[in-house]
Automatic annotation (TrEMBL):
<feature type="domain" description="Pesticidal crystal protein Cry22Aa Ig-like">
    <location>
        <begin position="71"/>
        <end position="140"/>
    </location>
</feature>
<dbReference type="InterPro" id="IPR032179">
    <property type="entry name" value="Cry22Aa_Ig-like"/>
</dbReference>
<feature type="compositionally biased region" description="Low complexity">
    <location>
        <begin position="150"/>
        <end position="167"/>
    </location>
</feature>
<protein>
    <submittedName>
        <fullName>DUF5011 domain-containing protein</fullName>
    </submittedName>
</protein>
<feature type="region of interest" description="Disordered">
    <location>
        <begin position="142"/>
        <end position="176"/>
    </location>
</feature>
<feature type="domain" description="Pesticidal crystal protein Cry22Aa Ig-like">
    <location>
        <begin position="3"/>
        <end position="56"/>
    </location>
</feature>
<dbReference type="Pfam" id="PF16403">
    <property type="entry name" value="Bact_surface_Ig-like"/>
</dbReference>
<dbReference type="InterPro" id="IPR013783">
    <property type="entry name" value="Ig-like_fold"/>
</dbReference>
């Protein structure tokens, strides 16, 4: 009767009681749509009816939460052992931790004997009937075998090459200032001896300059021409 009033032009305000409720199917214990019908009669016998709609919604605090499945994709090598329940857990807000068994696996096509992509599907139902499903991908790869690598033989050091001397070049004569020295010997045969002339050649910016040094060697020989 809250917030329900009735008035009449002749009678004024009419006080309502439960007798004015002629229909009421409201059930607040569960969500749904209901109706209430009122009937009012004035002193002269004139009557009026009115029906209202009452909507009962689910209390959000009473909603049942669905379980949560924690499971990640898996990568394996050919020949590995696969346990579909390893590292898979399920929890529920109302039920707490849910113990998983093989009955929670509703699909599993994994074949670890050959490479490929496979799938496993889990289903969990809580005590209030809420259902959660989750599918993970299982990738099986070919096993990689590392072949041993033989150690490489150490390379033998190459023999140093002997520098070649340009043709026509004489062996240089080393002096204190590394000056190129040319030795010109002029031999004159005679009874007096042999004359040798040492000619030193130096290079200057303006050209060659000879610094002759002459020395004499006395040697008695027969008078012949050489």
């Amino acid at each position: 009767m809250a917030n329900v009033t009735a008035t009449d032009k002749e009678d004024g305000t009419i006080t309502l009681t439960k007798d004015n409720i002629v229909a009421n199917d409201v059930d607040t214990s569960k969500a749904g749509t209901y109706h209430v019908t009122y009937k009012v009669t004035d002193k002269n016998g004139a009557s009026a009816k009115k029906t209202i709609t009452v909507t009962v919604k689910q209390n959000t605090g009473d909603l049942n939460s669905a379980p949560i499945i924690s499971a990640n994709d898996v990568t394996l090598n050919v020949g590995d052992t696969f346990d579909p329940l390893a590292n898979v857990t399920a929890t529920d807000k109302e039920d707490g931790t849910i113990i998983l068994t093989k009955d929670n696996i509703i699909a599993n096509d994994v074949d670890t004997s050959k490479a490929g992509t496979y799938h496993v599907t889990f289903r969990v139902v809580d005590k209030n009937g809420a259902i959660t499903e989750k599918t993970i991908t299982v990738t099986v790869k070919e096993k990689v075998t590392n072949k041993p690598v033989s150690p490489q033989q150490p390379q033998k050091p190459s023999k140093p090459t002997t520098p070649t001397k340009p043709s026509g070049q004489k062996n240089p004569v080393k002096t204190g200032d590394m000056t190129n020295v040319g030795l010109f010997t002029s031999m004159f045969a005679g009874s007096t001896g042999v004359l040798a002339v040492l000619l030193t050649t130096k290079t200057y910016p303006g050209g060659l300059l000879h610094d002759p040094s002459t020395f004499y060697t006395e040697k008695r020989r027969d008078s012949k021409h050489y």
